[in-house]
Specification:
five-stranded antiparallel beta sheet; Immunoglobulin-like; mainly beta; 2 domains; single chain; 1 helix
Length: about 325
């Protein structure tokens, strides 16, 4: 009889412990999530040409510490406007050199889905993930992890951008984790329909770009047309050289002496080893010879990011008329910046 009473007492005690373990208030699901993002570096950018693309990687992990309850979770990764943006305005901006460089962040490689925030408008949504977390068997959590690619694009044709280093920091609410979850015992049910707007963590990263000084140049031909005798009158003509430099870039346009110069006298060459002398000038009065000595006989300018046109004034002075024919020369235009 004594032995039986002891066994009965042990059985009742074991049942009490089991019931206590199943009491919901004593073992709620405890979900934690964390994430990290690599920096998004566009490298060297030419804002006057086409688009520039770059990518970064988001890595995330969530854990449930409860040994009794699983969790159906919905998590959102929100990206705001960055430290140099303005609220939730789009496109975003990278700041530097007193001029903004516009860019955008996307969830897809095609650039059709801007990566936004739970605090933004419906047109820019955060990245969402929905999944289940199992119970922590014997208090040993089994985390769920994943990754996503952030696609960045700097549009071309931004003529107002100056040379310099550009950056924008995303941290705190500008790179925010938020999630909601429902508890489950048998792995059934659905994640919450919303991840909420509470800040449950951050994944700070920086967007960087470098705009270097750069210029392009093109020139139209200079045509003196048909000329008769050269010893009776001078012949004048003009053409245009076009320079496009990054905004704020100082430059000088120089002209060499051509292929057939005699000393510093420019000459056009004909088919019978004959020449016609001519000259190129900075001013319409043909008083300032255009050469290649920076600060002395070159044209100085400061880039705006748009085409800037400068006239070249040519003159064929009085001279002995050579044989009839076509005379030509080639001038190299150089831009120093």
């Amino acid at each position: 009889m004594t032995v039986r009473r002891n066994i009965s007492g042990l059985v009742l005690l074991s049942l009490s412990i089991l019931l206590l373990a199943l009491t919901p208030g004593s073992a709620q699901a405890a979900v934690t999530c964390e994430a990290s993002m690599t920096d998004l570096n566009f490298g060297a950018v030419d804002p006057l040409s086409g688009d520039t693309a770059a990518t970064a990687t988001l890595n995330w992990s969530c854990t449930n510490d409860s040994p009794v309850f699983g969790a159906n979770i919905r998590i959102c990764f929100s990206i705001g406007a960055g430290s140099n943006g303005s609220g939730q305005t789009r496109p975003r901006q990278i700041s530097g050199s007193n001029s903004p460089l516009q860019f955008q962040l996307y969830k897809d490689a095609s650039g059709s889905q801007a990566w936004g925030s739970v605090h933004a408008s419906a047109t820019t949504q955060p990245l969402e993930e929905a999944f289940s977390l199992p119970v922590a068997w014997f208090w040993n959590p089994r985390p769920k992890s994943g990754s996503a690619t952030l696609y960045g694009k700097i549009p071309g044709n931004q003529p107002g951008v100056a040379a310099g280093n550009y950056h924008s920091l995303f941290s705190g609410a500008e790179a925010m984790i938020s999630f909601n979850y429902t508890e489950t015992i048998f792995g059934t049910g659905f994640p919450s329909s919303s991840c909420g707007s509470e800040n449950n963590g951050s994944f700070p990263f920086t967007v960087r770009a470098t705009v270097q000084k750069a210029c392009t140049v093109r020139a139209d031909d200079l045509d003196f047309g048909n000329a008769g005798l050269l010893d009776s009158m001078t012949h004048d003509a003009a053409t245009t050289v076009t320079v496009n430099c990054i905004n704020g870039t100082a430059y000088d346009i120089g002209l060499d002496n051509g292929l057939h110069a005699l000393g510093t006298t420019r000459r056009m060459h004909g088919g019978q080893n004959e020449y016609i002398e001519y000259e190129l000038y900075l001013d319409p009065g043909r008083n300032q010879r255009w050469g290649n000595n920076i600060g002395v006989d070159t044209e100085h300018g400061v880039g705006t990011g748009n085409d800037q046109h400068t006239s070249i004034y040519g003159r064929v002075p009085l001279q002995t008329t050579p044989s009839a024919g076509t005379y030509s020369d080639t001038i190299t235009v150089s831009v120093t910046y």
